[in-house]
Amino acid sequence: MVEDQILLQECNHDGVFPQPQLRYIKESEEIRLAMLPVELIKRVREIEQEVYTEPETAQKKDTKQTAAVDLSKRLKDFHSLNDAASLKGVSLFS
User: Fold this and answer.
1) Burial bucket for residue 7 (CB in 10 Å: 0-12, 13-18, 19+)
2) Is 14 helix (H, G, I), strand (E, B) or coil?
3) Cα 29 from chain centroid?
4) One digit per residue, pLDDT tens: the chain, 94 residues?
């Protein structure tokens, strides 16, 4: 950041840098780009894509699980009502 400010002070009034500064800027940019962890960035993007696709699958599983639990509860309630009705019927005949 400070180096950029120094370079800007050294440029001509028309915005043109002297040749040594241009070479320095180009080399600095090449070094900066070479230091980027390209493979790591690619892998992070892949993981982000996986994360974005998984919630849809998880949501479908959650929906199925919720439906299964709801159905199970309804069946239990239905059996309970049937058992209560059966007991009531038995007590009527006793």
Assistant:
1) middle
2) coil
3) 31
4) 556 555 555 555 566 778 889 999 999 999 998 998 989 999 999 998 887 776 666 566 678 788 888 888 888 887 777 666 666 655 555 5
pLDDT score, position 65: 83
Residues 10/18, Cβ–Cβ less than 8 Å: yes
SS (H, E, C) 26-60: HHHHHHHHHCCCHHHHHHHHHHHHHHHHHHHHHHH
How far apart are alpha carbons 81 and 66 in whole angstroms? 22
User: Which stretch of DSSP H or E encloses residue 85?
Assistant: helix 38-93
* Side-chain-facing half-sphere of 21: CA atoms under 13 Å: 14
Q: What is the CA radius of gyration of the chain?
A: 36
